[in-house]
Amino acid sequence: MAELRFDKDGLIPVVVQDHVTNEVLMVAWANPEAVELMKATGYAHFWSRSRQRLWRKGEESGHVQRVVSIQTDCDADTLLVRVEQTGPACHTGSPSCFSETIHGSTDGTMGVIPDLRRVLLDRLENPVEGSYTCLLYSDENKMCKKVIEEAGEFALAVKDGDDENMAWELADLIYHAMVAVAKAGLPMEKVYEKLAERRR
Asked: CA-CA distance, 71 to 80, in Å (whole number)?
């Protein structure tokens, strides 16, 4: 295992990601003790440069981060920690500390996935009249048939080789599959474990 390289102040930057969506939740700092506490307790611990003390994420708010994995970069001077986040990660109440776009757009990126997932889960907990998502939740047969229908339409679009149509149909398939996953309560961790078996 690589020996971690802490800076002159005995700290190492920590990038924290959601373990399901890979959304970057926050960036913090850790000293050797915080790193060991993460491994020993299974919860995110950091070093506060402003308060000059160790802290456990969520110790006041209750918005804890259960550590799923810890990786280091090629220079062993930065950590990537994937977590199961309870509540919002940001002290402002935002799901991520990176919520403000100052250039470009996240619409053409994977950033749309965690946003869509949050909407789908919210519709499940808080139904909205007139919502198509809620209509699907209320009619399991329709919900399941739409997954099959969209899979077929995507396959035909692939056969036709039309990029615009493929993108449209794949977006429909992903959306309807995500609705079904949310409704079924399927843990994505199980899906990822199965996908890991296919890396050959």
From this structure: 5
Amino acid at 104: G
Helix, strand, or coil here: 102?
coil
Sequence-separated (6 or more) residues with CB below 8 Å from residue 113: 21, 23
Query: Quick check: 140 and 183 in contact, CB under 8 A?
Result: yes
Residue 56 backbone dihedrals phi, psi, to 5 degrees: -100, 130
Neighbouring-strand partners of residue 54: 47
What Cα–Cα distance (Å) separates residue 84 from each residue in 65, 72, 193? Answer: 6, 18, 16
Two structure tokens written together for 128: 């909205």
Q: What is the average per-residue pLDDT within 140-147?
A: 98
Q: Are 27 and 83 in contact (CB under 8 A)?
A: no
Which tokens sit at 168?
A: 């449209």
For 88-118, how does the pLDDT look when each residue is reduced to its tens digit (9 = 90+)? 999 999 999 999 999 999 999 999 999 999 9
